[in-house]
Design brief:
Radius of gyration: 19 Å
Largest sheet: none
Structural class: mainly alpha
Strand content: under 5%
Helix content: over 70%
Number of strands: 0
Distance between the termini: 44 Å
Length: about 200
């Protein structure tokens, strides 16, 4: 029994996802053990309610199991993280919680950078770096402070001496531009991958 459990622990995520799709409960349990704490900690940064965090994380894992045959999951942790952050966003949208971020912009980047996309992490970071070099100085600085330095819009507005509304508008413009850029990059990468 212990050897069997150890065997699952030694499997990579791709293999675990394949086994999960076939209905392997032990593969699901391993994915849960591997990632629940990371998801909990990530959610805690945004929602300080332990009760809501536990509910969200459990719901996401429950949904992963019940809809296991209907998903095309390439990268399990980004997929789970996207699902959890989406649930946080929906709570915020319904006014049932006050997350630590001030606006639902985070959901915009998640919907753009789908966990199931053709990008791997290295390609994605490379594309974002290229995109950032093409942005005006202020927009680049705001984007970096928000999503690299993890500062709030309030902190950014104080540092730059501009209103929070200006910060939010700059981030909205950034995501519109980034989404277009990544869409084009994805087409190019898909052709490269086929080749």
């Amino acid at each position: 029994m212990i050897n069997k459990l150890n065997r699952y622990r030694s499997l990579d995520d791709t293999t675990l996802v394949s086994l999960l799709m076939e209905g392997d409960r032990k593969a699901f349990d391993e994915i849960y053990d591997r990632y629940w704490k990371r998801l909990y900690n990530d959610t805690y940064k945004r929602l300080k309610s332990i009760e809501k965090i536990e509910e969200i994380v459990q719901d996401v894992f429950s949904n992963l199991w019940t809809s296991r045959g209907k998903r095309n999951i390439q990268n399990i942790y980004p997929y789970l993280l996207t699902a959890v952050r989406y649930q946080v966003f929906m709570l915020y949208k319904k006014g049932k919680a006050t997350p630590e971020f001030e606006e639902p912009l985070e959901h915009m980047v998640l919907s753009t950078l789908q966990a199931d996309s053709l990008f791997n992490e290295k390609e994605l970071k490379g594309c974002i770096r290229v995109w950032m070099t093409m942005q005006p100085d202020k927009r680049r600085a705001i984007f970096q402070m928000k999503y690299v330095d993890e500062k709030s819009t309030r902190e950014i507005s104080e540092i730059l001496g501009i209103s929070q509304k200006t910060v939010q508008n700059q981030l909205l413009t950034s995501f519109s531009s980034l989404r277009d850029f990544l869409s084009k990059a994805m087409i190019i990468l898909s052709v490269c991958h086929l080749g």
